[in-house]
Amino acid sequence: MPAIRTTPADTAPGPQAFLAAQTRWRLVEILFWLALLSPFFLLPTYLTLASQIAITALFALSVDLILGYAGIITLGHALFFGIGAYTAGLVAKWGWGEAISGLVLAALAAGFVGYVTGFIITRVHHLALIMITLGLGLVAVEAANSASWLTGGADGLQGVRMWKLLGTFEFDLWGYSAYGYSLGALFVFFLISRRIVHSPFGLSLRGIRENLDRMPAIGAPSRARLHKIYVISAAMAGVAGALLAQTTETVSLETLGFQRSADVVIMLILGGTGRLYGGIVGAIIFMIARDQLADMNPQYWYFWIGLLLVAVVLFLSNGILGGLDRLLPRRRGDA
Q1: What is the pTM of this model?
Q2: What are phi and psi of 165, to 5 degrees?
Q3: Do 79 and 143 form a contact (C-beta atoms < 8 A)?
Q4: N or C: which end of the chain has fewer CB atoms below 10 A?
């Protein structure tokens, strides 16, 4: 009986095997998350900065879900970050300072606004998409500034008082509770995001990103799936905003501002889009660089950030993680 020859297509893993391989934890991932615990022991004076990094990383992760995986370009995602911050802040100001329920309410509020605006976002593309997301963010800033009776306007929302976390841990000035709380939230939503992108739904999002018009031909309703991931991303951004409001006990108009939306895009470019860890790595690099450069040169620190960004774009095709992919041999798989 003649031997049967197999082609690479015959031996290629199927979708289920591919997704199963993606969900396996690698040693470098475990070490990465263990390293994020080191500020508790090695850098206790930087715990406040570390909590800000964790919050920003969660915001970057939410943007990566729509930008890196679904191809939705946004310059106004701070809209949802700010809605989450104001929701959690107002709830605490009005007498309910329980942290976890504040996160839930912030996620619901931001997700609802994401659901409503998603009907517009999923119907436009390219330059129109950028302009609409930017416009929505600017409208939100002006609305919050005008409603000073509710938001505090340019002075910010004052009087936010949080209860002890889980009835035990107080949000102290040293930042132990704030960092543990923020890092825990980041890890939980990272697990959720990891499950999403390594699922058939996540594969369909990548297909939509590559070719929006052809995906419906194989039974993937592009607009409905883009709408769904947009709502999920909005809710996650709202949680990040709520974390900032709860750990700092104040909310400013800056939470809704264009600068926050632009900074998170820079972080994704630095770390690498469509990689989950790209937003986290980018947030760590950007926030630490900003902290150190602002101390060295408070007026011109953005010059060095811009120089770093140009260097990454010119020499690393898909951010720092993309560059590491080319330099370091590893098993195939999406980080």
Answers
A1: 0.90
A2: -65, 125
A3: no
A4: N
CA–CA dist 160, 242 (Å, integer):
12
What residues does each domain of the chain span?
A: 14-38+46-257
Distance from C-alpha of 219 to C-alpha of 257, rounded to nearest angstrom: 38
Instruction: Specify the 3-state DSSP secondary structure of 317.
Output: strand
Show the tokens assigned to 233.
């991303």
pLDDT (tens digit, 9 = 90+) per residue, 23-46?
A: 778 888 999 999 999 999 888 889
H/E stretch holding 84: helix 78-93
Could you say which DSSP state residue 26 is in? P
> Phi and psi (nearest 5°) for 167?
70, 10
Closest CA to 279 of 13, 58, 52, 4: 58
Segment of 2-6, 42-46, 103-107, 147-151 carrying the highest mean pLDDT: 103-107
**What confidence score (pLDDT) does residue 213 get?**
73
Burial class (CB in 10 A: 0-12, 13-18, 19+), 55: buried
CA distance 64 to 266: 11
Q: Quick check: 181 and 99 in contact, CB under 8 A?
A: yes
Per-residue pLDDT tens over the stretch 257-291: 999 999 999 999 999 888 899 999 999 999 998 88
DSSP string, 136-183: HHHHHHHHHHH-HHHH-GGG-B----PPPBTTTB---TT-HHHHHHHH
